[in-house]
TrEMBL record:
SUPFAM superfamilies: POZ domain. Signal peptide: none annotated. Residues 1-22 are annotated as: Disordered. Pfam families: BTB (PF00651). This is BTB domain-containing protein. Residues 51-119 form the BTB domain. Gene3D superfamilies: Potassium Channel Kv1.1, Chain A.
Length: 395
């Protein structure tokens, strides 16, 4: 049951407080100029009549309005040692509706999320890539750190990592899943924005910094690296010319959510992925090792009844070292043009090397292993490329 109460807080020397039911507006006395009026409204589902403690929280959208939560002290104390300490001495607390009352510094929606989670009334989106999860999770993570509730972090962080994977294997798996979603979306005769089915990277990045979840930052930054600054969610939706299917399927970001430090980190990462990563993976000793394998294309040997014919055939089918050098030179030349998504570029090269019939199967396998190793090295270096270690030490 929701009940709205108006409290008149007089700022005069008597400092009196009067409580009136809003339904009977005639009972509310006129306020002096130096008084403030505050509205306290009971929460619809979290004002429990058998609760023995009241928490109030201010509204972010309604000035001088507060929501009243009546809950159970024992349940709060069991989840949080900090809340337990706050509620330890109820004798010194003011009362509201006959029970001790604490005015919390948290916003109404934040405290509501925490209490619903504690009471088991909050169901998080279980589907991977659900865009709506970030707001709820940010409230919970913020208060779980503030009130020392580690169980919340243990449950929520793995859920976030499903959308922003900390490993290359899970990143590749997620990319395949998104490609499948795009195929299904493309079959829709009246599609909406494809972004509506996916989490937004700038919001995830801000959550990672503000709620101390560093494991999601590398993939969030890498995804932002793939987008141009004109791939902006808000601007795209304001422009009626962006309603073509090609425009609707593009990934975008809420760039205005980023802090200036985020943009600096992003620019550093773009530079490193374009130049530093290229220098790292194309070191000469490794490339020479990969290019000096001599194999026949069909595994012919120089033994046999007609030795001369076998040698002649073998010479024609010797694995072409020049073809290997040409392949690697092409990868190197195209690197900078593909540095916005070099992981996808190298993965594509893993597949295309199979079509090079002038390179023997053994060498093609070696090249594929080298490309996969390059991808893993780049992934491992993402925290360095985006300057995350330094930023995490400052937060």
């Amino acid at each position: 049951m929701s009940r709205r109460v108006t409290l008149t807080l007089s700022m005069s020397s008597s400092n009196t407080v009067s409580t009136k039911n809003e339904a009977n507006s005639n009972d509310i006395r006129m306020l002096p100029d130096n008084a403030t009026r505050q509205e306290f409204e009971n929460h619809q589902s979290l004002y429990l009549t058998d609760g023995n403690v009241i928490l109030t929280a201010s509204s972010a959208t309604r000035p001088n309005s507060f929501t009243v939560f009546r809950v159970h002290q024992s349940l709060l104390s069991r989840h949080s040692s900090i809340l337990k300490e706050m509620l330890a001495d109820t004798d010194v607390l003011e009362e509201h509706d006959g029970v001790p009352c604490i005015h919390m510094s948290d916003l109404e929606e934040e405290l509501e999320c925490l209490l619903k989670y504690i009471y088991g009334d909050l169901t998080l989106p279980l589907r991977r890539l659900a865009p709506s999860i970030l707001t709820t999770v940010s409230h919970l993570l913020k208060l779980s750190s503030k009130y020392s509730i580690p169980t919340i972090r243990k449950q929520l962080i793995p859920r976030l990592e499903q959308d922003w994977p900390p490993t290359l294997f899970h990143w590749d798996t997620l990319e395949l899943e998104i490609s499948g979603l795009l195929s299904l979306w493309s079959d829709d005769p009246l599609p909406s924005y494809f972004d509506d089915y996916l989490p937004e990277p700038a919001s995830a990045l801000r959550l990672g910094f503000e709620c101390a979840v560093p494991s999601i930052l590398p993939s969030a930054f890498y995804h932002l690296n793939r987008l141009g600054v004109f791939q902006d969610r808000a601007r795209k939706r304001e422009d009626p010319e962006n309603l073509s299917r090609k425009s609707l399927e593009k990934r975008n970001a809420d760039w205005n959510r980023l802090a200036s430090s985020d943009l600096i980190s992003l620019m550093k990462g773009q530079h490193h992925l374009k130049y530093t990563a290229k220098e790292m993976v194309f070191d000469e000793p490794r490339l020479y090792d990969l290019s000096t394998h001599y194999h026949t294309l069909r595994g012919l040997t120089n033994t046999g009844r007609n030795r001369g014919e076998s040698e002649k055939k073998k010479e024609k089918q010797l694995c072409a070292i020049d073809a290997q050098w040409e392949f690697w030179a092409q990868v190197k030349d195209d690197w900078e043009a593909n540095s916005n998504d070099v992981l996808r570029y190298l993965n594509d090269r893993v597949n295309t090397v199979q079509t090079r019939s002038e390179i023997c199967p053994s060498c093609r396998t070696d090249i594929q292993k080298a490309l996969k190793h390059m991808r893993q090295e780049i992934w491992t270096k993402l925290p360095f490329y985006f300057d995350l270690a330094k930023r995490e030490s400052l937060t």
